[in-house]
Amino acid sequence: MGILERRERLKKQVRADILKTARDIARDEGWQAVSIRKIAEVIEYSPPILYEYFDSKDKLLETIRDDGFSQLHEEFSKIKNLYRNPEKQLVEFGQAQWRMATEQPEVFQVMFNLDGALCLSKQAYQLEFNMRNNHPVWEALAAIRPRAADTVSKTFYEWWCLTYGFLAMTLISQTRVNVAQMEPVFMESVRRFVRGLM
Amino acid sequence: MGILERRERLKKQVRADILKTARDIARDEGWQAVSIRKIAEVIEYSPPILYEYFDSKDKLLETIRDDGFSQLHEEFSKIKNLYRNPEKQLVEFGQAQWRMATEQPEVFQVMFNLDGALCLSKQAYQLEFNMRNNHPVWEALAAIRPRAADTVSKTFYEWWCLTYGFLAMTLISQTRVNVAQMEPVFMESVRRFVRGLM
DNA sequence: GTTACAGGTTTACACTGTTAGATAATACGC
DNA sequence: GCGTATTATCTAACAGTGTAAACCTGTAAC
User: Fold this and answer.
1) Is the CB of B116 under 7 A from strand C?
2) Mind listing the domains of chain A with CATH numbers?
3) Which site among B161, B162, B176, B190 would you substitute to test the A interface, given the most A Cβ atoms closer than 10 Å to its Cβ?
4) pLDDT confidence of residue A3
5) CB-based contacts of B29: which residues, under 8 Å, 6+ apart?
6) pLDDT for A51-99, tens place per residue?
7) pLDDT value at residue B46
8) What are the residues whose beta carbons fall under 8 Å from the beta carbon of B99, sequence distance 6 or more?
9) What is the largest distance, in Å, between two alpha-carbon atoms of chain B?
10) Which of A117, B24, B182, B185 has its CA at 20 to 30 Å from residue B173's CA atom?
């Protein structure tokens, strides 16, 4: 039954092409320029075909967002395996977030509804921010000093506010050339935050 | 010549109505639901009339953004007149920002292109973040400890990242009822930041 | 060979921001 | 008060948006 498999492969490929095309357009022209018709033109299909792969444009964005969070968690996992020290882990987590936001700003924009990217679903946030024990950042924070879960959750929230604030503010307000210069300032803030935990 | 004055008054009124209507719709249904036609319907004019008052929808949003920053600066001025102590000033500045973001989230969204609000102009940021000596926050930071202007500018930038991060993350991820609970966490972070300066 | 179906397209609807042209309402000179 | 000039406003239209329904078309099954 190689035919069905070939079709399955093709379907996956088209799906991936749609996602990639959306990101490409967003990167070049911003998310406000991403339309179903434009994507369809690039992948050389008629517009309605996209609805065979995604229920709506919103769901398409949701997929990109979810993929973004997944990718971030993969980086987190790698770091967790590389370093035992929770302080070191946190600093590396911060750096991974910086990389993600600066290297794939268009994904970061969808993840947090920035700069015209708009995905109505808030499911990803509930998953990400309520993870507690299973979240690498949460675990690292809890490992540094034994505290009540609620206290850790508060610090966890502060972590997100700090890192997100820096990344989003930098992407929003700075020109692309200036962004690179801000990394040391960001990393210094992350380190100070981590020091403050001990 | 009371006729011209009356016309002038009416024009100002309509202009204000347009801005208010846009904010109202955004508040109720989100910025993605704000359209020229919807605004026109509410103010009981035909859609093209809005272009007598604003060059484009983008310019309309820019006005709301600029008004937002102006309003914030008015609050800053009041605080500056009320308190001499720069640390106290900063804490109050933080609280003013919190009030602004939670009481007028739709304005805050436009100010920072959050949640579907998209204003392409970045003029307001350049004005706000490059103000240095004239900015109340910058002045307060500089007053706490005498330092080089560059160092103050870095701290100024960190201030914006911290406060913006908290406010935006809270508005994005939390439900409307949960937002109020986060205020103490935010203010605690602001105070810690201020303490760290001394 | 006919039927069933998946893959894809065309067409259409109800929106969007925005512009051009027509029209209604007002103000001014006589 | 009447005609004219100007201003205010509207209607119609264009190009674009997300999306749904209807239609075609080549392949598979019986």
Assistant:
1) no
2) 1-53 (1.10.10), 58-197 (1.10.357)
3) B161
4) 66
5) none
6) 999 999 999 999 999 999 999 999 999 999 999 999 999 999 999 999 9
7) 97
8) B75
9) 60
10) B24
Model confidence at B28, pLDDT cuts 50, 70, 90, reads: very high
**Which residues of chain A lie closer than 8 angstroms to B137, CB-CB?**
none
Token output for A166: 């820096």
For residues B181 and B176, the model is more confident at B181
In whole angstroms, what is the distance from residue B87 CA to residue A25 CA?
46
The B 28-67 residues near strand C by Cβ under 7 Å are: 34-38, 47-48, 51, 56-58
| DSSP bridge pairs for A114 | B114
Side-chain half-sphere of B63: how many Cα atoms within 13 Å?
A: 15
Pull the structure tokens for residue B105. 């989230």
Give the pLDDT of residue B1. Answer: 46
Q: What is the mean pLDDT of residues A188-192?
A: 96
Could you tell me the distance in Å between the CA of residue B9 and the C1' of nucleotide C23?
25
